């Protein structure tokens, strides 16, 4: 058994057509599989590799993608994987219509060529479609038998809240919200593996400190994303092994245009540029992140193209504050349990207070950020600090879409800009890097959800666990491919 801690539960049910957060990736990426994946163990770039599709090709304008499907794959319920499962899985994601549904919204047809060949036809060109499929939130193949027999009146959502319909190396054998989850190795898994760990136990904890105590006493085997204050200690430790691994994680400062204080781009620009982000990152997250030198996560665009120097303009901030009506204050939100986010928000609040703008800091659960913020943005914080969030994949479109578009799944405070969205849509059709850069530059003028840092994925493991780097994917934070871990004897 491999014992792993989960902080504050996973936030949503472990249904890959619904799940759109962090902790639960440890479940969804080990229980379900898509047609393609980002190559595990590749920590320098995002390379798309085969998974349930052995090969693929597209037409010249990226409107048709043909996949040769792997034979000999079995779903956990015993159903054989074939071309019918692709159509059923895409259709189910569209019907559920949760956050990740945009990845199949452009699919007009899944054309079955034969039992193990399908052509996915799109309504319009999509140069990022393979990145959609490789994303940890991308479409996962589900047993058409389960989707039919357990459909009920909610497309099998009730059933898949505590069970699964995947092909992955592990089966979801237990799910108790607020208590824990258990994964069991699937003996009929299509890859010829002899896993070191046949059971993965994911217990829910209410405090990171409790997880750290159990890790350090040997009662917990792996810990994801400890507080920055502990990371250097783990990197230097002989008792446990700390790993700072490349990722697409970014620090994002959200601004709320639905509140009077930050309703204009000029106000948002003055606030963002009035914060010394370089000093803030160096002070709060020196081990896990660096100040961002570009608009996108590392590697989304060529390094020589995605270049931007963060401006620090305290005079502009002071001038803006002087224009505010007497009694104006600002609310700065951050994630509950995020030590880094809370520390950063408190420092910003103190600086704004000193500049003449009273500030308060509030903490918010993930369930609130992903629901209440969207339902009532006018009652949400003026500003929200996320020190380690991430886009859906390495594609610059997928970063831009989820953070900047009006319907983006990570556009928590509902701030968008028509010019940015138009440029993103144009870039999607051709994949031209220059158009993605233009979209980012337009967003910077609108100042809705700018990136201020680029971060790593941090894992702490017992020293007898081997293969951590090889089992890690640059695109999948807070998880490992557990079946590929081994024991160092």
CATH topology of the largest domain: D-Maltodextrin-Binding Protein, domain 2
Q: What is the helix tally? A: 15
Bulk shape: globular
Residue-averaged pLDDT: 95
- CA radius of gyration is 22 Å
| Main sheet makeup | 6 strands, mixed
Count of domain modules: 2
How many E strands? 21
CATH architect. name of the largest domain: 3-Layer(aba) Sandwich
Instruction: Tell me the β content.
Output: 15-25%
Q: Give start-end ranges of low-pLDDT stretches.
A: none
Which structural class should the secondary elements be placed in?
A: alpha+beta
**First-residue to last-residue Cα separation:** 16 Å
Pfam families: SBP_bac_5
Protein name: Peptide ABC transporter substrate-binding protein
Organism: Microbacterium nanhaiense
Keywords: Signal, Transport
Please describe what this structure looks like.
There is one protein chain. By secondary structure, the protein is α+β, with helices and mostly antiparallel strands. The chain has 2 domains: 2-196 and 458-487, Periplasmic binding protein-like II (D-Maltodextrin-Binding Protein, domain 2, 3-Layer(aba) Sandwich); 250-455, Dipeptide-binding Protein, domain 3 (Roll), CATH 3.10.105. Helix content is 28%, strand content 22%. It contains 15 helices and 21 strands. The strands form 6 sheets. A 6-stranded mixed sheet has the order 14-18-13-17-15-16. A 4-stranded mixed sheet has the order 1-10-9-8. A hairpin with a 2-residue loop joins strand 6 (107-114) and strand 7 (117-122). Helix 13 packs antiparallel against helix 14. The longest helix is centred in the C-terminal third of the chain and has 16 residues, at 339-354. The chain starts with a strand and ends with a strand. The mean pLDDT is 95. Keywords: Signal, Transport. This is Peptide ABC transporter substrate-binding protein.
């Amino acid at each position: 058994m491999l014992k792993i801690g989960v902080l504050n539960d996973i936030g949503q049910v472990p249904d890959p057509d619904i799940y759109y957060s962090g902790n639960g990736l440890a479940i969804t990426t080990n229980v379900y599989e898509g047609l393609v994946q980002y190559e595990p163990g590749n920590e320098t770039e995002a390379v798309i590799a085969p998974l349930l599709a052995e090969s693929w090709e597209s037409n010249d304008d990226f409107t048709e993608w043909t996949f040769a499907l792997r034979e000999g794959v079995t779903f956990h319920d015993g159903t054989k994987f074939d071309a019918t499962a692709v159509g059923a899985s895409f259709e189910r994601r569209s019907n559920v219509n949760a956050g990740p549904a945009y990845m199949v919204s452009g699919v007009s047809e899944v054309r079955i060529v034969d039992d193990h060949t399908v052509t996915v036809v799109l309504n319009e060109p999509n140069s990022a479609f393979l990145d959609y499929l490789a994303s940890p939130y991308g479409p996962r193949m589900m047993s058409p038998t389960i989707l039919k027999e357990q459909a009920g009146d909610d497309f099998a959502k009730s059933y898949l809240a505590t069970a699964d319909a995947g092909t992955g190396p592990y089966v979801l054998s237990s799910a108790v919200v607020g208590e824990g989850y258990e994964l069991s190795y699937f003996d009929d898994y299509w890859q010829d593996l002899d896993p070191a760990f046949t059971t993965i136990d994911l217990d829910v904890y209410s405090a990171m400190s409790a997880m750290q105590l159990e890790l350090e006493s040997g009662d917990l085997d792996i810990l994801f994303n400890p507080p920055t204050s502990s990371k250097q200690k783990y990197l230097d430790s002989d008792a446990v092994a700390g790993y700072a691994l490349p990722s697409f994680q970014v620090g994002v400062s959200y601004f709320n245009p639905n509140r009077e204080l930050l309703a204009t781009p000029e106000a948002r620009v003055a606030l963002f540029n009035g914060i010394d982000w370089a000093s803030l990152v160096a002070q709060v997250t020196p081990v896990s992140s660096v100040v961002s030198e570009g608009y996108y996560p590392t590697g989304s665009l060529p390094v020589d193209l995605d270049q931007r120097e963060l401006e620090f303009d305290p005079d502009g901030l002071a001038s803006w504050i002087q224009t505010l009506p007497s009694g104006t204050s600002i609310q700065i939100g951050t994630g509950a349990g995020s030590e880094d986010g809370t520390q950063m928000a408190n420092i910003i609040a103190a600086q704004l207070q000193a500049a003449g703008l009273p500030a308060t800091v509030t903490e918010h659960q993930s369930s609130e950020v992903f629901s209440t913020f969207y339902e009532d943005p006018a009652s949400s914080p003026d500003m929200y600090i996320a020190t380690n969030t991430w886009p859906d994949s390495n594609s610059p479109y997928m970063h831009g879409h989820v953070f900047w578009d009006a319907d983006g799944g990570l556009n928590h405070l509902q701030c968008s800009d028509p010019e940015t969205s138009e440029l993103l849509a144009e870039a999607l059709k051709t994949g031209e890097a220059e158009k993605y850069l233009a979209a980012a530059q337009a967003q910077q003028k609108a100042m809705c959800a700018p990136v201020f840092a680029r971060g790593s994925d941090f894992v702490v493991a017992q020293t007898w666990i081997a293969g951590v780097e090889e089992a890690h994917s640059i695109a999948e934070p807070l998880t490992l491919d557990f079946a590929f871990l081994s024991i160092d004897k």
